[in-house]
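Sample pair:
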Amino acid sequence: MGNSQDHKKEKKKYTNENEDEKKAAKADSEKHKDARIEATGQLTLDENESEHNLHLITIIGEIEGHDNLSSSSKTTKYEHILPQLAAIEDSKKIDGVLILLNTMGGDVEAGLAIAEMISSLSKPTVSLVLGGSHSIGVPIAVSTDYSYIVPTGTMVIHPVRLNGMVIGVQQTFDYFKQIQNRITGFVCAHCKISKTRLEELMMETGMLTKDVGTVLVGKEAVEEGIINEVGGIRDAIKQLHDMVERKKADTK
């Protein structure tokens, strides 16, 4: 009788210790996730019923190039994003990638580098435009396999800006034209809009005060053939799960 009671006590103690360890491990995991989000704006979504590992990357604020922006600015650093994308491609654990965008644009070369990296991933990719994906954010938004925009999301389409610089030589004009062609070429290759129509939107003079370009809101971006569909995070994640399932089925 005494041995039976002792056994029950030991079993209960062992169970409590296991529960405490699980709680401590969960707390450490949550702390690690919070720290990762704060440091890089990235997270692995791995607690879903489908048991897929989806990597989340956020493109927010201004896309930073070779020069550091002020500490008060929200920025996306391309030197953080590019190695992470390479690691995702190399990882057997990551099944798909979700890109959330709320960016004002930024450095053209850095933005195009990010867009090219995303478009060349072998993993299924989905983007979701939230507050906005302006300027060089447009190529990033269309670089994924499928794209969404929320009803109130905006996309500003405009030509490469010169930041107040005075162009003094023909070579500089030619250089900016070359950059513009790279951007339009990438965008048109990754969505349904034609080059002619995209350039028309870029050069529109009646919408932006003292500037040229076009603001597209929600479904307008879909109607122009830039974004695939209007939707939110539920739609984006569901689409990504479906794409992962289809890829796994194709590889069997």
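The chain has a mean pLDDT of 80.
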